[in-house]
Write a structure and sequence with these properties.
Layout: E1 2-9, E2 15-33, E3 39-51, E4 55-56, E5 62-63, E6 75-86, E7 89-97
Antiparallel strand pairs: 1-2, 2-3, 3-6, 4-5, 6-7
Length: 98
């Protein structure tokens, strides 16, 4: 994905206008049953987010085309472990990591 004329918040919490960025990545998901009542769902994504413009902001911060967007994580994932012993009871534990 390519974004143009966007507004984003930099690492210091200031808005930068007229920004351009490029985003590429992959997402994976796996679901399975672990017995009669237990399930497992794992999701993960890897993305590369880079600046696509050069500018020196008013505060002196420099944005260089080709560098990573400093506020965008490369890895994001989650794991869910639902338990459904009956049609009326359903519980779930979710763990998220970055």
């Amino acid at each position: 994905m390519r974004k143009r004329d966007s507004v984003f918040r930099d690492a210091d919490g200031f808005n930068v206008t007229g920004a351009r960025s490029e985003h590429r990545g992959i997402e994976l998901a796996a679901d399975g049953q672990l017995g009669a009542d237990w399930f497992l769902a794992i999701d993960a994504s890897y993305g590369r987010h880079i600046y696509d413009f050069d500018v020196v902001a008013l505060r002196g911060e420099t944005f260089v085309s080709g560098r990573d967007v400093d506020t965008a994580p490369r890895w994001v994932g989650s794991a869910e472990l639902p338990y459904e012993p009956s049609d009326t009871l359903y519980t779930q534990r979710v763990a998220v990591s970055v």
